[in-house]
Amino acid sequence: MKVSATLVLVFCCYPVLAQSANSTASTDNYSGMYSFLQEGEFVQVTVEDEGRVTGFISRFGDGESDRGAFLDQFFKDGKLDGQNLTFETKIVHGVFFAFRGTAERGPGKTTDDEGYYLLKGTLTESHTDANKKTDSKSRQVVFKSFPKSVESAPPPRD
Fold first, then answer.
1. Is the pLDDT of residue 157 over 90?
2. Residue (of 35, 55, 58) closest to 47 by Cα position
3. pLDDT digit string, tens, across residues 86-136
4. What CA–CA distance (Å, rounded) separates 1 from 7?
5. Which of 142, 47, 61, 151 minimizes the C-alpha distance to 102?
6. Residue 141 in contact with residue 123, Cβ under 8 Å?
7. For the chain, percent helix, then strand, then coil, each to nearest 5?
8. 75: domain CATH number?
9. Residue 11 lies in a domain
């Protein structure tokens, strides 16, 4: 009787345990560096506890005063809920970005391949002028993860 009661309990709980194990095993760590809009630009994403996302965009300025200068725009807020990723940057020189999309597996075979992870979604770029008027444009984007071996490679020596 004890054996059959134990078996019934195991079989009843198995789907819950299997689902829990699968969700834990399939959770990807999307933290890392991703391509951005132009060659040489990138997004750094760090997924922290409870889906909080921090990071920054490093990009070339395109305004009159900062054209060609390298700018870092840190995230004001960010969140990863399952595969749904959102972030918004702080304003730098009147420009900020908002991303709404997903973080998912890409075509790369290993984390040492470009595009092992992808950030797919809508990127909204907003410009605020001196009169506080904001102009925004949105576009569909796909940002590819950089190879992990590139991210962790030591800096070149002189």
1. no
2. 55
3. 999 999 988 999 999 999 999 999 999 999 999 999 999 999 887 889 899
4. 10
5. 142
6. yes
7. 20, 45, 35
8. 2.40.128.30
9. no
CB atoms within 10 A of CB 111: 16
**Domain housing 105:** 32-151
In-domain check, residue 1: no
Place of tokens 């005063």: 65
Euclidean distance between CA atoms 74 and 71, whole angstroms: 10
DSSP symbol at 145: B
Three-state DSSP string of 47-108: ECHHHEEEEEEEEECCCCCCCCCEEEEEEEEEEEECCEEEEEECCECCEEEEEEEEEEECCC
**Residues 6 or more apart in contact with residue 139 via CB below 8 angstroms:** 122, 123, 125
Give the span between the Cα atoms of 137 and 78, in whole angstroms. Answer: 20
81 lies in a domain? yes
Please tell me whether residue 32 adopts helix, strand or coil conformation. strand
Domain membership flag for residue 7: no
Residue 156 has what DSSP assignment?
Answer: P
What is the pTM (predicted TM-score) of this model? 0.74
